[in-house]
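retry 2 of 3: previous attempt timed out while embedding HAX. Reduced batch size to 1 and resubmitted. Inputs unchanged:
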Amino acid sequence: MSLKEKLKEKIDAHRPRTTRLLKEHGDKVIGEVTIKQAIGGMRGVKNLVTDISYLDPFEGIRFRGHTIPETLAALPKPPGKEMPYVEGHVYLLMTGDFPSEEDVKSLVEEFKKRREVPKYVWDVLRAMPEDTHPMTMFSAAILALQRESIFVKEYNKGISKFDMWDPMFEDSMNLLAKLPVIAAYIYRYKYKNDTPIDPHPDLDFGGNFAYMMGIDPPYDDLMRLYFILHSDHESGNVSAHTTHLVASALSDAYYSLSAGMNGLAGPLHGLANQEVLRWIQDLFQQLGGKVPTKEELEKFCWDTLNSGQVIPGYGHAVLRKTDPRYVSQREFCLKHLPDDELFQTVSLLYEVVPPILKEHGKAKNPWPNVDAHSGVIQWFYGVREYDFYTVMFGVGRAIGVLANITWDRALGYPIERPKSVTTDMLEEAAGIK
Ligand code: HAX
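retry 2 succeeded.
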């Protein structure tokens, strides 16, 4: 019997034990955590501390205590633009304070100084097979940059625990400045016949990203909004938690962020934005390119559920209402692309999916999350290569998680090491062994 066959046998034998524990004893308390929480992905276990953002199940995300509309209203904007400087949001998440115009301007200049990407990173990307997923390229580029780590150099010299936040911050800022350049390079290299566009000397984070993608305004404003909305979602989501976990071993920002991005690349997390578009495109294809009616959409949703798949872009582990990040993107669409067919389909899905998920009776939250909306706007502005969408999510997410690990070092958070138990122990605790 091969190892794989042996393993399968073991798994098949073990599964009913887990199912029984969950079904019959899921609420049994073990220490301060239930069996359901221990087996079921630690839902609701309060064991992480962060001040960068907080997610209320009904109100949605607050960045440093501020809702999305409050944040967008209070951050300084580039002259004549609709959306704030991303750099200002970096300042807010790092410090907890809104920046002045002057603070933002100096940060914009600082990012420009830090954004040059060493040539060996492009060589790494170019050595990869053509069909490599852009998230793999993005993560590999971040990891390749690890040799630049200032934290490692300082650590090797011998640095006090209390000073470690400083090189962590330096690495985080260097990374943040380079990420839009790396992301746009991957896009132009992979999908636009290898025609990367150099950064523009006069443009800010969001404006420069749009410029390097080769897309005209108001795409720059969309991307300012997009990066801010995707920046942080407190600490328990996979990308934030992974980044924090890896950093807790005193791994530097490059190792930590690359690991976090690998988590973001999962279809239940950040990759859901690509899945939404793929799913809608499948539907359009089935209907010969025609915009679906409500009845056709309903049938398509049920077909998806009945085949054992999830409806991408709906549901959430914490949220119990429509994601305010969905609402902000919807408002952008209502202003800039109200007549777009894809947007109208996404709007129709908003009517159709929640009652179906309620009737289906499994998902605790039948409402849309951020990923239900982001793809449709990218598609409208010409970014139709939907496997690239999660890379843009990653650029945004880096803002929050890098602020978080800088603070981890600042507050001297220890290495993370929760305790595991065995299935035998759970059965004993449940009184069935
Ligand atoms: N469609 C169908 N079934 C769903 C569902 C959906 N959209 N959302 C949840 N469910 C199901 C779960 O699969 C689970 O089924 P089982 O009991 O058979 O395992 C059940 O409902 C209970 O799940 P839950 O407690 O409501 O949700 P979880 O906390 O376990 O999972 C997820 C949260 C976001 C992963 C889930 O809602 C999902 O898979 N959604 C679709 C994928 C998606 O949109 N992901 C992006 C989420 C936002 C994000 O992180 N972005 O990065």
